[in-house]
Amino acid sequence: MLTKLLKALLILFALALLGSLVWMQQSSDEAGEAVPVFALMDSSFKREAPQTAEQFHVYDNDLLYVDSDDTSVVTMYLTVGRGNAAENTNHSWEEINSYSAYDYDRMGVERYQIAALLQVGDENGPLPDALGYGETTPNATVQIRGQTSTKAAQKNYKIELKKGKGTWNDQRVIALNKHMYEGMRFRNKLAFDILRDIPQLMSLRTQFVHLYVRDMTGDNPDVFQDYGLYTQVEQPNARAMKAHGLNENGHLYKINMFEFYRYEDVIRLQNDPLYDMRAFEERLEIKGNTDHTKLIRMLKAVNDVSIGVDTLMEKYFDSENLVYWLAFQILIGNTDTQSRNVYIYSPLNSEKWYFLPWDHDGCFMRTEYAVHERSEQGGAEIGVSNYWNNVLFRRCLKSPAFREQLDAAINDLRSLMTEEYISEKVNAYAEVAKPYLAAMPDQVYAPITPEEYEYILAAIPGEVELNYRLYLESYERPMPFYIGVPVAEDGMLSINWDNSFDFDAENITYTAEIARDYLFEDVVYREETVYPLISTQLPEEGQYFVRVRADNEAGKSQYAFDYYVTDEGKHYGMRCFYVMADGTVEVDVYEEG
Known about the structure:
Number of strands: 23
């Protein structure tokens, strides 16, 4: 009897509990909210198969961008003053702004810094509860940032907050970019904001900034001067890696001038007696783990042709990351990415390397270059040709499977970056930038007129499809190559070059010309040949140019990688050299900046 009563009580309790759950569900339905119902699983519940390091992908932390306002402007107040020699801050603001990166290289010294107090607020001044409010002593150091841009009249700045002095947006290093050489003043931000919508790639946080500077070392130490509009971009470092869900103890390098060759003379371990950190960082800036063993292992594999591309990719790279990074750069026309302007990252306990995007102020520039009548992004710099000088990409592009993956990624991104999508973004950013470009100080330094601004703005959304057509066209042409150093011997001049490559395995014919001018109006020698070599009598003393073009059987042409730079831009496919009075030859070396 007791047992039956106990069973009845248990049944009543179960029914009551079920009724409560039903009532809660009905109540939530009436309130328009869903209440989760959890069920216990039996021993056959499903588990996700564990990933291996080789299968692992890196994805961005989307939560970082949830509350971002792409068109907001943060006002920053920067007070600068002379610091001390120990921190290399015993300099004036005038000194900070007087020297370019090339000047520091010539002087052989680190970039000068100045002590600073950074405060964040609005147009009425610093705000309570914001960085630096109420402070009177330095909380940061400032120096110029960039390379070529350091020669511009308006500088880019690196502001580094001191430890223990707080952060801004969880960042201690704040990079402010003026983007002097692009008229829109928002291209870099545009690219990073697009990247947030591409799950296969990483992005970085960006922000429009209105900067005011009070110079305690100048003639008006009590006045904040308006420095106009900047865009801030998050710095890839250990702090950023952690915020974006990456391994903060991993390997991170900023590629400065690096084509994935082995470079045994400079890419060495730290304990190597011949290790030279300055020479190393001319190729790769060390931003993470300082043990270069894994980097060297990867470079040896990339340059070992006995290792197939499929094996290389499976072990050392993430093909999804690689093809989407390349596809993105091609479609936005960010051509200065063959051997720099990108980071490579590898988690601590993985052999895999990932490309992290960086520096996009050269994207969507074709129309603006045309307005300036400047020759850029032509010749070998279109489509896949642009990456043929990089040994990693050259090996990958020779693989039909890789090209299929790249084509799929290109078309996937085209479906995202439609004209409507790009138009909406650029028009919104233009509404932010134009008032600053119409006012001092940005007005006087703007590289284009307001009328040109509107013309270029309207053309930007169409550049994705233009770059796509150039991408398709690049496969039809022979691949570019480098011209060797002209050699004078026994009264003869010999010039060779690398073999070109054709994706359809068509025969290639070369046309080599030597002229006294870079327009090739005064040609002194011309030869068509199937061999990558010419030899002719040494011309008389003077300046000369050699230009080489490759033609395939379909009649498609490609010039050499080499180019000569004038005020009009790049003149593609040529090298400049001089025949000296003693019969020797000297080659002109173009140095950027």
